[in-house]
Amino acid sequence: MIDMKEFEEYLLKRKIKPTAMRLLVLEFVGRHDHALSLKDVEQGLEHTDRVTLFRTLKTFEDHKIIHSVDDGSGSVKYALCLDACECDYPQDIHVHFSCKVCEKTICLPKVNVPVIKLPDGFSPQEANVVIKGVCDKCTA
Questions:
Q1: Dihedral, CA atoms, 43, 130, 34, 46, nearest 10 degrees?
Q2: What distance in Å separates the CA atoms of residue 139 and residue 127, rounded to the nearest whole number?
Q3: Phi then psi for 7, rounded to 5 degrees?
Q4: Which of 21, 37, 55, 62 would suit a FRET pair with 46, their CA atoms being 20 to 30 Å apart?
């Protein structure tokens, strides 16, 4: 388990002021192995302001600490980036898996999205591949 001092150093390294709320959100997101919606974070951190949470998540996304996932559920989910991640297309684009049983969305960083050759004049900026099915934990 990472202690708060390490979280502070991590945020400072990413040029983010380590406020109490940012540390709390980073610790909360970091202890989950799947992507979380704003509502998930809000419910997990009682007595927090929704706007502040959203701004914190947006700041983390802008500084490439987390990335957003549109898994088709109707709400954007957020997952912690790996240390080497820069969230740049196409280098860091990976597959996400959405389980129909437990409803978790899981990053599969070792499963890359293949580069798709587009017609001349088209300039891709991001890609999102979500595979839906039953995860390994629900299958067992």
A1: -10
A2: 28
A3: -65, -40
A4: 62
Q: What is the dihedral angle through the alpha carbons of 92, 93, 94, 95, rounded to the nearest 10 degrees?
A: 170
Interaxial angle between packed helices 20-30 and 4-13, expressed in degrees from 0 to 180 and rounded to the nearest 10: 100
The single-letter code of the amino acid at 15 is K
Question: Residue 115 has which token pair?
Answer: 């580069």
**Sign for the pseudo-dihedral over CA of 58, 60, 63, 69:** negative
The conformational region for residue 100 under phi > 0 = left, psi -120 to 50 = alpha, else beta, is alpha
Predicted confidence pLDDT, tens digits, the chain (140 residues):
567 888 899 899 989 999 999 999 999 998 999 999 999 999 999 888 999 999 999 999 999 899 899 999 999 999 988 665 656 555 567 889 999 999 999 999 888 777 788 999 998 887 788 999 999 999 98
Domains of the chain: 4-139 (1.10.10.10)
- Contact yes or no for 128/70 (Cβ under 8 A): yes
CB contact at 8 A, 125 and 90: no
